[in-house]
Amino acid sequence: MPAGRRRRRSALVAEQPPGRSAGEGEGADGGDGAGAAGHGGAAAPAPAFPAERPRRRSGRTRRAGTGEGAGGGDDGGAGADERSGGGARRGRAEEPADPESRARDICLRLLTGAAKTRKQLADALRKREIPDEVAEEVLTRLEEVGLIDDAAFARAWVESRHSVRGLSRRALAQELRTKGVTGELAEQALAQLDPDDETEAARALVERRLRTTRGLERQTRTRRLVGMLARRGYSEGLAFRVVREALDEEESGAGEWDGAYGDTAYED
User: Fold this and answer.
1) pLDDT at 55 (0 to 100)
2) DSSP letters of 161-197?
3) What is the pLDDT of residues 118-133, one digit of tens each?
4) DSSP 8-state code for residue 114
5) Which of 3, 43, 108, 259 could form a disulfide with 211 if both were Cys (CB 3.0 to 4.6 A apart)?
6) Residues of the chain whose pLDDT is less than 70?
7) How many angstroms separate the CA atoms of 170 and 186, rounded?
């Protein structure tokens, strides 16, 4: 290369601003720079990559981080409170507010399970603090429509307790009094039983228990069997008579006291 040309090139390099290489051109498209590099100039530095694009958040994260998601959480809590309040209001709405409706519902629920006397229902309403005048009105109405029938209750009670438990008239009368059935209604129900029925029931009770007392002295057996009948309301005279007859028949071999009901069938 001629000396003059080398001097001009050195002068051009000396005039370039600092920070730019000798091979960089002036144009925006880098044409001059490329030419300079192709003619032996220094290569232009690689362009810097843009900053890394932030990762896209998942929908769950965006909702949790955005104001809408936070508001949604608050709204959800408010919605739960609102739903809870709504349930409580519905519960209060379902429960009758006035005493008359409450009393009627209480009676109907109790009558669903089994028949009840007027006294039993009145006691239940009193425990639930229903005013007496309201209770009387509701109970009278239930009697008018036939949902309360003390006479029918007494008849069914006497028949069931006498046949299943073998209770005497006296014991049955006591139970009816505790249920609130007294006077004429009780007498009509007890009239279902005549003296012969009572005697037969006593004999059946002795038959059930007689076998379990075998091996004991007669006096001991008599005391236990009479006590069992007395606890069921039988008079002392009837109890001693039935027990004596049963023991006499057993000893003579005329009766077949074989305990047909079994030792465990009887509960004293």
Assistant:
1) 55
2) HHHHH---HHHHHHHHHHHT--HHHHHHHHTT--HHH
3) 999 999 999 999 999 9
4) S
5) 259
6) 1-97, 254-268
7) 11
Residue appearing with tokens 């009145």: 122
pLDDT, position 68: 44
Select from 120, 169, 109, 113 the least CA-distant residue to 149.
120
d(CA 137, CA 134): 5
Nearest alpha carbon to residue 166 among 239, 73, 88, 245: 239
At 240, which amino acid appears? Answer: F
Contact 173, 186 (CB under 8 A): yes
Tokens of 62: 């965006």
Question: Alpha carbon of 91 to those of 28, 88, 94, 197: distances in Å?
Answer: 79, 5, 5, 54
d(CA 174, CA 121): 19
Structure tokens at 190: 């007890």
CA-only gyration radius of the chain, Å: 53
